[in-house]
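Possible race condition, two jobs.
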Amino acid sequence: MYTLIVVFFLISIFASFLCSVLEAVLLSISPAYAQRQLAENPPVGEALTEFQQNIDRPLAAILTLNTIAHTVGAIGVGAQAAVIWGDSWAASVVVPVVMTLAILILSEIIPKTLGAMYWQELSGFTVKALKLIIIALAPLVYVSQFITRILLRGKNKSVLSRADFTAMAELGARDGVFSEGESKLLANVMRFNKVSARDVMTPRTVVIAAQQEQTLSDFHQQHSDLRFSRIPLYSDSKDSVTGYFLKDELLASLLENQHDKPLSSLKRELQAVPEDFPIPELFTHFTTEHTHIAMVVDEFGGMSGVVSMEDVIETLLGLEIVDEVDQDVDMQAMARKQWEKRAERVGLIKPESAKGADEAG
């Protein structure tokens, strides 16, 4: 009699222990690890990928076996305890308490901790064990999957979101997997789709543009120290932008004594994008069209500013690309300062000195 109660107890705990380990390992395996295993160990990688794509199947097998183990164990141990001790307090109180604590500690806490810690080492064993369990419990697994699909119909959703990847990048930096710069770059990539041309463009108020009929020598004399390599051209005003020219081509033409040629002789096509144009699409546009600048237009077709490949890359890297002759790092910030100065002159806002006096008063 004592032998039977021990056998029921051990079978129940062992089966539940195994289920908890398999569940912890299965839920700890990342999509990236499964993809890596496809290259390093194709049989394991294919099985892991299949399990992740149809996660309810292995989970149904695990939970079915775990339920059977708990039920059979409880019934078997309880029945044998009643035979041995009858209606005494040992059978009605002690045995249930011991069984509950054993299930909690030996088949939940310990195995799930081990599975979560050593999931990579146990991935191969998990694949083999799950295949056997799924085959052995195929009818029950099928019924469970059928019910699950009815309940979750139309609820397919990616396991990972952009926020998850951002969090993983931050955790990777904290744990030393990524450097701080790498983590920042990954986080910027995840936020890239939320940025538009309006957010990164050089505003119209600080865009250096040239009248297309102006001669090469006149423009060079006026802007001999110009740091920009691409300058928009216009016919009547900045709202009538017709293209752009390269500073290098201007200098090359001057060296060839073509001083009196109009800037329009160097004109290149300048494509326009709306203010809400997404930065990822703009990056693709620049790379596929082999161009480095575009005009940003507002809802009325007027020029709002210009955006360059440099602006896009700065946004991606999370920093300003500054060369030796840059005087104003952030052109948007400079545009804001110029607006504030004009607003102070016409009385739209109070000067900083007046603000300070008001606050002191």
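Job #2 (started ~2 s after job #1):
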Amino acid sequence: MRQRRLKNLESKYEAYEDLLIYEPPQMKGRWRELSGGRPVFIEIGCGKGKFISELAGREPENHFIAIEGNMSVMLRAMEKIREKDLTNVTFVPTHAGDLTDWFADGEISGIYLNFSDPLPKNYWYKRRLTYRERLRSYFRVLDRNGTVVFKTDNTGFFEWSVLETAAADLRILDLTRDLHADPEAAADNIETEYEAKYSGLGEKIKRAVIGRGEAAGTEEKYRNG
């Protein structure tokens, strides 16, 4: 169900001005200053914030940029951060564009794509967050060891994304097609709200960790494949 726009949203946002960046291009090359020198990670589409709030609490040595185009939904995420008294999360209240406009080369240490919109119509493929050109742009802003962690319950979208990874000359470092049934992969997993709901209904959650290197081939060991 689509989240309804909350009443008096602008006034409610005033309480969180210290957490917000409205003009991310102005921060290009300066995110490490904001983070106090800590490594910076991004979640594109943070939703109501279950994932980012738990991850930020688990990893205080890192700083996190939560991007979300639905401002009503993002308000819930900011509430979670404030309730937990976390100081290592910054929010960008807009849809993610070309990250190279927002971040300098090598400025980011990791990117999380949790249950991105699969945009099922064929002519929308270039707008998907795992389209090959998007993936290449991520690795322009990621540092040498940076990775993209991608989770979805949509099998068609997942398999398409695996092929796009190869087309982008990137490498799948780890892959599981049933995350919750894989003890090793699930050990450090943080569920999103969406994930908790749909895995509870029996949906299998797929996850891929994408890094630099030659495209993954048949020699790659895929768990539960």
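The mean pLDDT is 92.
Logs attached separately.
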